[in-house]
Amino acid sequence: MRVGSAGRSSPRPATSTGSSGSTKRGATGVGVKHIQRALNHSGHGLKVDGKFGPKTDAAVRRFQEAHGLKVDGIVGPKTLGAMQASLSDTRRRAEPVARNAEPVTRNEPGTNRTASLDSYSKKGQRNQMATGRVTINGNTYTFRSGGSGRGNLPKGDYKITPHLWSRNDRSMNVGGVGYSFAMSDKYDARVGGTRTLLRIHPDGGGAGTLGCMGIVGDAATQRRFREDMRAELQRAGGAFTLNVR
After folding, report:
1. CA 237, 239, 244 angle in degrees (round to 5)?
2. Contact predicate 136/232, CB 8 Å
3. Is residue 98 a part of any domain in this protein?
């Protein structure tokens, strides 16, 4: 058994029903348990029973989609490597300073599912842009909102639901990692109208958004944020309220 720095075992091949040492639906054994534990670190909530059944198969496919892998439900070398890298990312989250371009920090209890608008550029103008922080699954990320059109998103409560786990739009993709989560509509008294089609997505392309929440950071940061969103949505039953203040 291989054990990581945090004392947790890394995923390893199970009794395989596929070729070339791959593991897929129908496999059983301790190796499947390692795969299930690795998936649970990404927020999938599987029962660790060593049986590669339909729920494990679905979780593997979601993991593959989230990491830009071939979506076939088979845990081969590339998927296994991505799981090991994901475990390493999880362990690094506990460090006081992140190793990537944008800090990802643990926040104080009671601030989860909240976002703050901390500073502004072009303040008071129609294309005002806000920079702030959002806390999801206990981790805090930097975001930008606005900079064109009708400015940054207004403060208030938003219902958050899944939209697209993967997308290629330049403005919603960083380093090959793209996604979007839907935010409910919000009336904006500043512009005298309702803001629609609001999303949470990577802050790709030029800095700022059309009013959505653009997560700042490199590809590794975007992957972590997407996995944190997946875990938060799963824990909340598919939707949760985000308070922007």
Report:
1. 140
2. yes
3. no
CA–CA distance, 60 with 65 (Å, rounded to integer)? 9
Contact by Cβ (8 Å): 202, 184: no
Q: Do 75 and 115 lie in a common domain? A: no
Contacts of 129 (CB under 8 A, 6+ apart): 120, 121, 122, 144, 145, 146, 147, 151, 152, 207, 208
Dihedral angle of Cα 58, 60, 64, 65, to the nearest 10 degrees? 20
Q: Please classify residue 105 by burial: count the beta carbons closer than 10 Å to its beta carbon, then call 0-12 exposed, 13-18 middle and 19+ buried.
A: middle
Domain housing 143: 105-244
Domain boundary among 62, 92, 122: 92
Q: What string of pLDDT tens digits covers the 245 residues of the chain? A: 333 334 444 444 444 444 456 899 999 998 898 899 888 777 678 889 999 999 999 989 988 887 888 999 999 989 988 888 776 655 544 343 333 344 455 445 458 999 999 999 988 888 899 999 999 999 999 999 999 878 999 999 999 999 999 999 899 999 999 999 999 999 999 888 999 999 999 999 888 999 999 999 999 999 999 999 999 999 999 999 999 99
Whole-prediction pTM value?
Answer: 0.59
